[in-house]
Amino acid sequence: MRNTAKITTAALAVGALTLGLTACGSDNDSASDANAPLKVAATPTPQGEILTYIKDNLAKKAGLDLEVKEFTDYVTPNTAVQQGEVDANYFQHQPYLDDFNKKNGTDIVAVPNATVHLEPLGVYSKGVKKLADLEKGATVALPNDTTNEARALKLLEANGVIELKAGVGYEATPKDIASNPKNLSFKELEAAQLPRSLADVDAAVINGNYALEADLSPAKDAIAAESPKDNPYGNFLAVKKGNKDDPRVQKLAKLLTSPEVKKFIEDKYNGAVVASF
Questions:
Q1: If DSSP codes are grouped into helix, strand and coil, which group holds residue 116?
Q2: Sheet holding 38-42, edge to edge
Q3: Burial bucket for residue 212 (CB in 10 Å: 0-12, 13-18, 19+)
Q4: Is there a contact between 265 and 234 (Cβ–Cβ < 8 Å)?
Q5: CA 32 to chain centre
Q6: Parallel, antiparallel, or unpaired: how do β-strands 235-240 and 88-92 relate?
Q7: Looking at residue 272, what is its pLDDT?
Q8: Looking at 106-254, which runs of residues are DSSP E strands?
Q9: Whole-model pTM?
Q10: pLDDT tens digits, residue range 247-265?
Q11: Where are the transmembrane segments (predicted)?
């Protein structure tokens, strides 16, 4: 059984709102006790599953006491690291972290050489089997956080559904659409809600971890999906600034990018999650 603490998004929202958001980290913040448990926040799938695999199979031999705390949103894993409630998190990619730090005044950083996997973003639909089959005026649900919404729009653009304004980067919104031949409507939702929205929209662009939790496979069920080639959205281990050299963090970084974890990802997810190392 998993030794994890699952916390609902609703309960976490209050904690997120009370964050002091003071960037008080320094380069001397590393943990004083190298033998203390390493507490890591993660979304359940696949990050929590990968960490649980490490906890059950690899951590003891490496001399690491690992505690996995699962969260169901994309905010609290960062606020928990910033406030010192956990030592690290594993759930996000660099464009999301850059945006989060900018908006919230936090100082969370990626651990070097600890980018673990990519979850291809996919478009899913109960009504059509190809994006080209979407009718005029169809409604498409998108994740409402800045970088993943831009990522979703770029996926739609790559498949010829829309065209974005020239030069639009990781902060694109529907307002940046230059051409929308099908006159699609866009419904912006919290990423975790997107799988449940499929019954109410014509299509939804869903993050890989939430697709997996809903028994949707980017490799089998998506009507369009991101290519892993040169993809900037790999998920990595992150800590508060100053804690990258914590020996416990370094042990976990090494385990996360081990041959054993790569095989676990390949065997368990069958292309729905792709190792980035």
A1: strand
A2: 4-7, 66-71, 38-42, 88-92, 235-240, 108-118, 274-275
A3: buried
A4: no
A5: 29
A6: antiparallel
A7: 84
A8: 108-118, 122-124, 139-143, 163-164, 177-179, 185-189, 203-206, 224-225, 235-240
A9: 0.74
A10: 999 999 999 999 999 999 9
A11: none
